[in-house]
Each structure stands twice: as C-alpha cells, then as structure tokens.
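Hello,

Following up on my earlier ticket. Below are the two sequence lines again, exactly as submitted.
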Amino acid sequence: MERSATNLVHRSPDSTGSRPHVIYLAIGFPPAAKSSAYRMRETANQFAAAGWDVTVVTIRQESWEREYGLDHTLSAGVDPRITIVELPLERADLETDIRKFSAARSLRPRDWIYQQRQQSLKLFPEPVFGSWRPALEQAVLRLHRERPADLLVATCVPYVNLAATWRLWQEHRVPYVVDFRDGWSVDVINGGEAFTRDSVSGGWEAKLLGDAAAFWCVNEPIAEWYRERYPDVAPRVRVVRNGFDRDSIPAEPHRPDPGAGLTFGYLGALNLPLPLLKATLEGWHAARESEPLLAGARFEVRGHVGAGWAREDNPHMEALRAAAADGVTFGGPVPKAEVAQAYARWDALVLMVTGGRYMTSGKVYEFMAAGLPVVSAHEVEHDAATVLADYPLWAGPPAMDAAGLAHAFRLAAHKAVETSDADRAAARRTADRYARDTQLEPAVREVTELIRSGGATVSRQAAGEGHQ
Amino acid sequence: MTNVLLVAGSRPTRPTVLVDALTKLRDGGATVTLACDFDPSGLEIPADLAETRNIGEDGRSGGLVFRQLVRGAARPVQVWMRASHDPWVRRHARSAEILVALDNNAVHAVWQLAQRNRRADAVFGLTPALKALDDRRARPEPAKRSALPSAPSPAVLAGDAARRASAAARLAGMAATGRRAMTVSPVRSMWRVAAAAPGIPERRRAALALRLQGSMIKAGKPGAAMAMAERVVPKVTDARARAALLGPAVDRDLAAGRVPPTLRDVVKGELARAEALHTGSHPGQAPPVVGRALDLLFHRVLHYDRLSSPLSDDPAGFLAPLHDSAVGRRLAAANGRETPAEAPVGRPPRLLFLTGLNDNFLTPIRERYDAMPDVETRHLDMSPGTPVRSFLNNGRAKLIAHRLMGQSKYGQEAQQLFGPDMEWADTVFVDWCAVPAGLLSLIDPGTTRVVVRLHSFEAFTWWPHLVDFSRVDDMVFVSEHLRDLAVAAVPRLTGPGAPRLHVLTNAMDLRRYPAEKTPDARFTLGLVGIGAIAKDPRWALEVLRELRRADERYNLVLVGKEPSPDASAAAKEYCTAFERDLAELEGLGAVRRLGQRDDIPKVLTEVGVILSTSVRESFHCALVEGAASGAVPVVRDWPFFAGRAHSARTVFPDEWVVGTPAEAAQRILALTATDEAWRAAGQAAADHALATYDWDVVAPTYDPIFKP
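Thanks for your patience. The regenerated structure is below:
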C-alpha cells in the first residue's frame, strides 16, 4: 500500500501495468475510524485480489480527527498493492480550533455553518459535502490522465462522489459502479421517500443510475425500493450486505461466568434516537432489579458518540453517564484490532439501532457471528430482525419500550448461562453466510467479468449516444 | 500543571458529562476554572474539580450605560462584554494555557480571549479540551506560539480602542434617541425635522428613523412616531425600510376602521422582507412575515366591515403587490400532477365529499348522491369538533411554509390524512375554497379528480392564494360574477394547467316555502340574514322610509343574527348608525327584529316583499327562498358587481333588480298597490324561482361533475 498526501498518485511498485485500473472513491477509507471503513477496506481488497490495480481516493487523515478519529489498526488489513490518494479536504463544520474561526464564525457559529451549507448546495445537493465537488472532479480527471481507469467505483456517502463519477463518465466514458449502501432517495430512518424525482437530488440519482454498470445496496428492502423506482435499472441492482470481518470474531465461543456477574456489550456508533437509548437503559435498570442472574451485571457501551465539538458531549452521553449506578459504563471506541477481544469479554450483546424496514446496520452480522445472545432494541419491522430471525440466541422480538426490553434482557441473561457450547457454536455458524468477503467477492467478480467482457462498455456506449 | 479556563454562555444541559470531563482534566494535571454567564451554584461542581465564577458578578452593577449596551447586544457579544469587564476572567484568561468554549454562546468570548492570550490553545467542546491537554503533555508548546507574548497584539489593542470610542459614540446617540429623550416635546420635534433633513445616507436615515420610531412608541407618543415616519418615508427607497416605518400607521388606520393609504407600500415591503429571509439564513422566519402581508391585504376592515372593497373595485391592481412579488410567485408555483385524472371503468364512481367549514350548502348534494345505488360516497368532515380538525391548526402558516419551501412535514401529514381516501375516490369534492383545499393541494392526487367549490367570502381571503390549482381539475362557482372576480383575483385560475371553470346554482329545496300569506303580509317587507355588514340592512331602512312617506302601513321584519360591533372599528361604526336608525323606526312600530329563527317558511308567510339589500352576494339563497314563498322580490343591484358583465342582473330577472332605495320603493308601491297585483307578482316570482332554482331542476347539472 502506498499513500499520497498530495493530489499526486504514487502507483504501487508491484503494479505490472497490465492489470486493469480501478479508481475507488471511498471517503472514509482506513484509517478513518468509521463504520463504513470496513466495507471500503474489503471492497478495495477484493478488487486487488481480483487482479485490479486499485487507487483509493479519500481525504487526508487529519480531517478524520474532527469526526470519529483514526484507527490505524484498520490500515493493517489493507492489501499492500493498493494506492491511496488523500485529497486536502476537510469538514469545516467540525472544526474545534477556535483560533481558526473568523470573527463572524465566532459570533454566530450555527449561522456560519448554515451559510456554508447553503453555499455547498449550490454546487451539489448535499449540504455537508457539496463543496467538495470541484476537488473530487479534478482529482479523478487527473488520476485518469495519469493512468487511464478501466472502472470507477463510488461508495456513498458522501453522495458528492457521484458528481466526480459522472464527470469521468461524461468526459471519458469510464464505466462505473455505484455502491449506494443505504441508498439515497429512500429515507432509511423514517421510511418513505427522502426526496422527489423532480428535485435536484432526484435528477442526479436518476442519471447516475441510468448509466451505472452495477448498483449495490445493503439489503433487499432498499434494492426493492430502487427496482420499483427505476424499473430500467432493476437488472443491475444487487444486494451486497455489509457482513462481518472474520478477524473481528473471537476464535472460540464465549463461556460466561455467572458468579463474576454477566457483562452485556454494545459496540458501534451511538447514533440512535435518544428516547430509544433511554428506554434501553430503563429496561436494563428494571431487568437488573428483577432478575437474579443480572444482579451486579454490567452493560459496557463502546464506540463513537457525537462528533466535532459535541464529541462525547451530547444527550446520549449524559444518559449513559447518568446510568453509571446501574453498572453502565462507556469506554470509548475500540480499535479494529481489539474488537475480537471485546466480544470475548462479553456475555450478551445489545443491538440498539435506528430506522426500520430499510435499515439493517452492519453490527447485526458481527453480533450474530460472535455467538452471543442478542437483545434487539429497535423497530419490529426492521431489516435487522429479518437477519436475526433464524438466529437461535436472539432474545427477540425487538422492543422499543422499557418493559419489553427488560423482558429481553432477562431472556438474554438466561440464554447466556443456559446455552451449551455446542449450541453456541451452532449459533455462530448461522452467521457464516454473512462474512464480509463472502458478500463482496461475488459482487466484485461479477463487475470484473462485466468489464473484461466489455459488456458494460457496450451497454453504456449505446446509452451514451443519448448524451452526445 | 496546565491552566484551563472554560467559558459557558448557557447553563449546561449535560451536568454529568461536564463533571466527568472536569474529573478527567483534573486527573490529567489541569487546574480548571469555569466562567459562567449565569449563576453556577446549581451545577453542583465539587470545589476540587474547578473554581467557578458567575461572570461579572462584581460588575453587574457596572453602571446604567454599560448595562444598556449589554442589553442591546447579541447573546454571544453579551457573554464577551461581561467577561471582558470581569477582572477574575481577565486574570485567569491571561494565565490559561487552554481556553475552552462550552457552547455556541461562549465561542465569541473565547475567540476574543484568544486574541489577547496568543499562547493559549482555544478550543470548542470538552473532548477537544481533553485532547488539547493530552497534546500539551505529549508535545512541548509549538515553538512559534511559545515565542508569542501572553498579551494582545497591537492590532487587537487598536481595535479595542476603536470599539471603545465607537461604543461611546453609540451610547451618546442611544441616549439622544432613546425612550426617555422622546418624552420631551422639543426633542421629538427636533428629531422629526432632523431625520428628514437632506444629505443623510439612506441606510443611516432608515436606521435612525426606525430607532426614533421605536423610542417614540415606547415613550407613548405613537402620533409623533407616525408623523416623523411620514416625513422620512419619501426619502427612503428600500421597500423593507418603508414598510417598517409605515407599518404602525397602517395598523392604526385599520384599527380605526379606515383604509390605509400606504397599505400597498407596507405589503410590498413585508413581502420583500419575507423573500430576503427565505433566501437568506433565516427561511424559517419568512412564513410569519408572509402571514403579516396577507393579514394586511385581506384585513376584514377592507373587505367585510365596510360597504366597498378595494379588491372588488380593482382585483388585479389591489393584489399586484402580491402577484408581482417573488414570494407571490413562489406561492403560485404549479407542482402539477404526475398522471391525469381517470374516470372509473367497470365499477360505480366513488365520490369523496370534503368539508372544513360547514356543510350548509352541501347537504342536498350529498343526499342526492348518497341515495344513488350506482354511486359510492364517503364524507371527510374537518369542521370544528371533528377528530381530524387538528390537521387544520395553524394551517395557514404551515401552508405558507410548504409553498415557500416546496416541501414540508405538513405535506407528509396531508399525504397520511388524505392518502387512503384519495386512493379510494375517483372524485373528491371540496366545499369552500379554504384551508382544506390548500392542504389537499399539497399532495399529488394520483388519478383522482379534484373539484373545489368557491362560494363568495373566500374570494376576499388569502385561501385561494395558497391553493395549488394545478392539482385541481374543476372549479365550481355559484354565479358568474363570483367566477369573474375570482379569476381576476387569482390569475392562475385561467391559462395552461388551470382547472376547468363551472357555474352551478346552489342546491336549494324550495318546495317547502310556498304557503298562504297572512292578511298583513302585503305591506310587510322581509330581510332574512343580516349578520354581516355586507348585508347592509340600513339600505332596507332607507327603502322603508321611502315607502312610509307614501303609506305608513309598510313595515319591515329583520330575521337573523345581528352584525357584531366587536369585529372592528368599521363594524362598530356601522352598527352604531344601524342602531340609531332602528331606534327611530322601532319606536314607530315600523321595524321588528325577530332574531335567529329556524322556522323560516313560517316566518315568510308574514312577508309580502322579500329584499336583497347586500353590497355583495354570490347568489343570495334567502332572497330566492322568499321569492319561492310568494313574496315579491326586490334586489339591490349589488354594488360590488353592478355595471359589470355579470351581476345581480344576470342572476335574476332584470325587473327584480333596482339601483336605489327610491327605485326599490317605486317597484314595491307599484306591485303592492292592490292585493290582486301583489298576489299576482308574488305568484310569478314563486313560479320563476321554483322553475329555475329548485334542486329538482338544478340537480342534473351536477351530474357531469360527479358522474363524468
């Protein structure tokens, strides 16, 4: 792996020049400590393994300090043949160094951010990232000039990646794949439509999907949304679930020690609605009061809470700190290399996640693979429930109220101590199909074959005539 | 040991997180001080974690002048002003290695303190503070910064001096133009002249005049404020400033029941201000300003509580400030529908009746189609007291916000409310062009046909201006003259994408009115419905006076709720004159007030002549009911529409209509000269009413709408 902190590309010394070249727009690539970094890492690795020279485009590492920080252990798993280009972009809204503020920003911090976002929207319909459009477009054009790309893969968010994707397609007809993950026009949190077809975003989405060689998303409900919204694109829509990383799972199933008190764990970015977190903590309190197995039990929350100036200083954090008397602790993020150790310490897991039928969350796969009982704190009609439906250690059904969650905590406690080692091992096996490489390898293979066969080019050339 | 100064401009809402961070700072080797722009005792911060300070607690009594300056400042500036005057804060800021703002209101104070202590880190938030502490422990202070003195730069010092000088000047100005100064008559007179003096740059003149206006009003001298504004306004071209200066005078005139001569200026200015807010950084503040403009344009004093209306006199000209404004264009934007309305195939048509005000004029229509075996009906009633009424709460503001932004949560609520019924219905009929029509037009109706009926009063309101008519297929009016007025007021009712326009007579069951008249009925005039000033019952009294000059047997009965004098000053003026007139005639036994009655057919047996005295009507059902009863109809040529292509004369037979009270008296005297003549004329009127306006005759004209 070679990293460039400038806009110049440093090709991998291993590159033969005969391998096809893919530009991968992956803002959030390791070492960014973001949940999406895992998927990006595996995607890049799969392309490298499939015979591609991969150039990853992301933003400079310092920029992530303002958000969720860096996890250099994540970078260890990146294929060394991959070249990484870091653009000098950053999220000004997350700046916390007041010396870098103008007087105007210091006087009205919120208004200043609002104005910035209004300016961004003039460039691209994405308030936080829209202003990155020119830099991204220039970067991909320069990369393509320096070494022509055979394929571009854009993963969103940010959606502004689509502008650069479209520019390269418009000017050089480079085929592209959109890894939309959670989609765009579908509102995965509240359900329904996030924007109309005749909006600016709607226009971008329609034209990008119209010419995409392939379009990936993370679950079937989102795929179905897009198949219905764009029937012409339907054959190119593919579900590529998030899955879990094999190295994040302890080698052996965990065996609890009730005498020492059970430990429940949560790992992930804590961006669920506050009422749901409070209901979970109330349910935990009630279960701990009423269930002998939970006497002295601990609930360890790990992950990222808040960003920018509000990092670990938001109402969620206050709720967690206020629950300390109930054995609730917050231990900050877990480096990727230590994730397996965290699961190895815990006796059961708590899946707290926002959204509904269009949301799966990446953590659900990892939770299943850990072979631990899972308490579900989310909507009943949620894609995580679909995934967990045949998981034997699920303390379902999902609940969002304190009473229902208390019941789930009690059930999980019993499952934790009463499940045999053999049953735990069997439970772990139900997650095998969700290993991240298992999910991504076929998708990358399909795209590789499509590009090699020239199918994408032919179909897009035909489509492209309409744009000439 | 690292000195850390935290500044809080607002009371922290996460005290546990704060204590946790303070603990980490202490454990990390920091000495922490916390400056709060509020009393910090409620935070219960242990003394070993941080020394706390209520900023300026010694300096809060720092003089009237300082307090006045602080009071007029924005919140972040207030925090800084108090902090900069507090020796405790200054001392700790000078020695701090890390300056921390805990909230948005504290950022400016920390920014300012950082200008004066150039060695310190200055960060926003607790986690960045902890990181700054870690960084300082891990690495020595950056060489560049450590070389800087822990003192303000010369530029900052110069800036401070300039600000102080400017503040002194401001204070002097504030004192001279403040409320207290405005209590002195010569000072007011001086400013009235000075503010309009030549040579002052416009922006400064406008700012000065607005300040003077506010101070004069606070000093209880609104008349002086308006007099000053009247002198200044001709020298100000900015629409927003003109509106602000003229606003109080407009409000005064309306409160006094008068038509404000500068209404147009103020409406234009308010709409310009709304547009600036919408396109600027405060779009959320635009809808109330649009609401203010609409309140002015459609104020009841202008259109309801007087005997004329500028909207009726010149619809296009009166509403030009709205239609020509950017906001007006946003409100008029056509969103259209994805698919055209489709008639059902292979099953009975499905009708949805939607009402939001009342179903006074809808019942016969609904009953007709409810009774048809080949039609399916539903009724969604949003009138007061119904479960879904709450959807209309604050409806105007929400509709304005949606029309400005192009989308809103209200639109989603409309989808949830109407979605299932719209999915079911082939045609939805919205009676009254009011808020439910606007709410319905927020959603794409799919293949359902949308029909809206506008009666009369809505034409003088803002409601039609908040309806997206590109989602309405058919508009129904109850008369041609109302259609003409509505089209003139709402230009998008014609042209490409506009709904089809229909005129359909009101649904009235007239068969229950014909009855034998009482012997005295021949000399009894009747006026049914006098609740609105527009009914102008004083005109009936004029007619009665004319008649009684010829024959004192003529008398008048007034039926219905009386107009309320409390509605406005204009209404009060009318009601006072009406009561004065009545006192004279009632004393002679010539007028009887029957009040609200629910036995109108019986009341009409005593009425030989039925009057329509209104200045405006869409149709006037009560007049037609009277005619059906056999009373001789006498219709004033409704002045709002008289002389136009369509008017009372095109609704009724020309001989029913008169121009003046004298003409009315002449017609009555002629037709009631003998019992036979009176009965013959009454019978002819009843025959015409029943043959022309009865529901049996009118009903089939509705079928093309409901059974296309």
